[in-house]
Design a protein that fits this description.
The protein has one helix at 3-185; strands spanning 208-215, 220-223, 236-241, 247-257, 262-266, 280-282. With 289 residues, it is of the alpha+beta class.
Length: 289
């Protein structure tokens, strides 16, 4: 047998096998189609039920999703509004911060200017203080000089009044001497021309005190200094007043002395009324060197 014949035999055999297989398949399909249809119909029903269930679930999911989306849209809108508000607040804060920085810069410049002005003011105050100190020093010197001049003028005025009083007293004594001299020439006796109470005897020390009390009836004057200051019986003291105006009041003679006080009497009793408490008593109108 040729090769072609062999091929044809094989092809016929395969064709026969395929044909047999189709025949068997057709027979099988023809025999089981009802069972397959019933199964397929049941499967279809189940599939429809599943599809309906899935559709309902899908509708529920869709509704739920739409509600969630609506809520999220509302939340998103709210967040956007808050974001816009925050953005506005942020812009406002930026503006306020810029303004605050500007004000801080201006304040810093003003503070520096104020510091410089304060330094200049302090320097001016220092210069003025030094000038005032010099002026006060000059004023103190002038006041001291004026006080010295015033004291000297007061002493000079009191001394002038003292001299006037002494001149008047000497004139009176001179008249007394003349009368006594005339009496002696006419054969009379001396009448105590130089009475002991008229002798001036200042204390050996330079003392000063004030009148503490006056007894108008007895004419006795109590003063604030005594033997501790160097006074003794028989000493004479000048009496004068500085305020409200300098005035010479006369002399007193010390009659009794204690350590801290003394009692005396005016040499001219008719001037007792002019003496007051607080008047000055001293050994001399002019201070001893």
């Amino acid at each position: 047998m040729t090769t072609l014949g062999k091929i044809l035999v094989v092809v016929n055999f395969l064709f026969a096998l395929i044909t047999g297989a189709f025949i068997i398949m057709v027979f099988t399909v023809g025999t089981n189609w009802k069972d397959s249809y019933d199964k397929l119909h049941e499967y279809y029903k189940v599939s429809q039920a599943n599809v309906k269930t899935y559709a309902e679930e899908l509708a529920d999911i869709k509704n739920t999703t739409e509600k969630e989306l609506a809520k999220r849209d509302q939340e998103l809108a709210r967040l956007r509004e808050e974001n816009d508000t925050l953005k506005k607040d942020k812009d406002q804060l930026k503006g306020e911060l810029a303004e605050a920085r500007k004000q801080a810069k201006l304040s810093s410049i003003a503070a520096m200017s104020a510091t410089e002005e304060l330094a200049r003011s302090r320097q001016e105050v220092k210069v003025l203080t030094e000038a005032i100190a010099e002026r006060n020093k000059s004023l103190l010197a002038l006041e001291k000089k004026n006080k010295e001049l015033l004291d000297q003028a007061t002493q000079d005025q009191i001394a002038r009044q003292t001299v006037q009083e002494q001149a008047k007293s000497l004139a009176e004594r001179l008249d007394n001497l003349q009368r006594e001299y005339q009496r002696l020439q006419s054969g009379g006796t001396a009448g105590g021309i130089l009475a002991k109470r008229d002798i001036v005897k200042p204390p050996p020390e330079d003392v000063e005190g004030i009148v503490k009390a006056i007894d108008a009836k007895s004419g006795l004057i109590t003063i604030s200094i005594g033997s501790d200051a160097g006074l003794s019986r028989g000493n004479t003291l000048e009496v004068y007043r500085l305020r409200p105006e300098p005035k010479y009041l006369g002399k007193i003679r010390i009659l009794d002395v204690t350590p801290h006080n003394a009692v005396g009497r005016l040499l001219q009793e008719n001037r007792l009324r002019s003496i007051r408490e607080g008047d000055t008593v001293a050994s001399s109108i002019l201070r001893r060197p």
